[in-house]
Structure formats: structure tokens, C-alpha cells
Design brief:
By secondary structure, the protein is α/β, with parallel strands linked by helices. The chain is built from nine helices and 14 strands. The longest helix is centred in the middle third of the chain and has 17 residues. Keywords: Oxidoreductase, Signal.
Length: 318
Amino acid sequence: MKKINWGIVGCGRIAAQFCEDLAHTNNGVAYAVAARSGDDATAFASKYGAANAYEGYQALFDDKNVDVVYIATPHNFHFKNASDAIKAGKHVLCEKPITVSVDECKQLSLLAKKHDVFLMEAMWTYFLPAIQKAKKWVEQGRIGTIKHVKADFGYPVPFNPDGREYNPDLAGGCLLDMGIYPLAIANFFLNKDLENLHVRANIRYKGVEDDVLISANCGDVMVSLTTSFQCRLGNGAYIIGDKGYIKIPDAFRAYECSLYELDDLIEHFEDGRQSQGYSFEAQEVGRLLSENKRESDIMSHSQSLLLQSQMERIKALF
């Protein structure tokens, strides 16, 4: 099997985890790395076995041997980085949130179609086996009709006015950084937009939020979502039906899920993986590219647009 060559844009924590997980795929390798600092790119490339290191991103985009680009820069740079890669004819997997506005998301989707390249938001959660198993249980009617979806994601992030998380110019705030996960979970299992949004937010600094509580409905389904920079939340998800419910601990990186009928555990699933979990989305991107696909059915352009729309609507209610 010919392995695809990944170009890694950015050398932060997420990029490192992604590169570590590429070793758990059978269809991709870290081929090149780019950073604003040439020294950073060289050190990162050496650590993860990439053949090439570039100072500046355009040089990587222009490398004819790079098949697909993984973008792991701060949120507000995603649109430009992805646009430049697409214009250079590269396929793109871009970290979430793929952009910071509905308009940018629309433009990026149109640009990818114009240049006939693959584009996907890196919602790795959707590709985890435990999330896929939970979805199958729902589709099989194991919990009956869904009545409630509850999900949260939060970790304490110490306040630093110079840090990315609290900087309004760098798309700071817990909603885009962490809140996208509970929203994505709700969208994955309901496949419909949220209605009647009610939002409570704590604004910490220059309009940047550090705690958000969201309640809504999706038809007859009640939805409760929470995200926070103030504290560690439960970080799980519950998909609750009229016949049973599914419990997913640490849903954003789910290793397992459990199926219950009332108080009785009916079935339990663990994926037993060796990777952190990014390998599943990387493997899927490789598969889609081998089939000459330009979009994922699991994490489609329309799904990314829905998330962007929801986050804009939520922020408008702060």
C-alpha cells in the first residue's frame, strides 16, 4: 500500500499528538513539517521522523511530494493557512474549529470545490470506535427514541491575558476551544440543528468567556451542554432514550461506552487502542484520498458549517 505524505503545519501539542498517532496508521507518514521558526520545524521533524522541515508554511505547500496538509495552528489562522494550502493544490485536514466564522467556513468549502481538493475539519471524536459504536446502538433502536442529550467538556485554564485562550484577537474563549466538542456530540447523534437556544456565559476578559451553559431542544429532544476554562467538568456524554441510555466517559476522546436499560448494564464496549485516538481520523482521510473522495460523509462541509452557525448564534447570546 502506498502511504500518503502528510505535511504538518504548526509544531504545538496537538500536532505532536497527531504525529505520534500517524505511527498507528497503515496509510500515512509524517513527511514534512513547517513552522514560523525554522529551528522549531527542524527539531519537530527530527523527533517525529519527517524528512523535511520548513521555515514558513508556503514552502511546505509548494512541496510537490506533500499529499495532504494537517493544520494545527491557532484558530484564527486556520482560514488563511487552509486557503493557502488549497490554492497550492493540497488536500487539507484542518483542526477544529475549522474557521472562526460562518462566512469563512463557506468560503473555504467553495475554495476546496473550486480547486478540486479534499477538505475536512479534524473532528477526531467522530471517528473514535466508541462513538461509532454508540451511534450504531442508537440506530439499532437499543435506547428507543432519544429524549435527552447531555454533554460537557472543561478543564481549568489559568488566566493569562497574553495567552491564546484569553486573547480576543486569537479567537480565545472556551466555546471555540472546548465547547465545540459538546456541540459536535449533540449534532452527531441528533443530525439536526438546535432550536430555542438559552445561554449563560461568564465573561472573563475583553469579551472572552470562560464558562458557558447551553440549553436547547432539537424537536422533542432536550439538549444540555456545558464548557469551561474554570474547572474540570465531567467531560462525558449521555444519550438518553425512552428505553435506555448510553454513557460515554471522556466523550471527546472516548475509549469506551456503556448501554443501559434503566439501572441495568446491558452491554459495554472498549476499543483497546494503543494510540491516543487521532489515528482513526488520519486513517480515514487516507482511505478517502485513496478513493479520490473530496469530502467525508462523517464530517462533511455541511456539518462544519452547522457547528460554525451554532457557535455564532451562541456567542450572540452572551
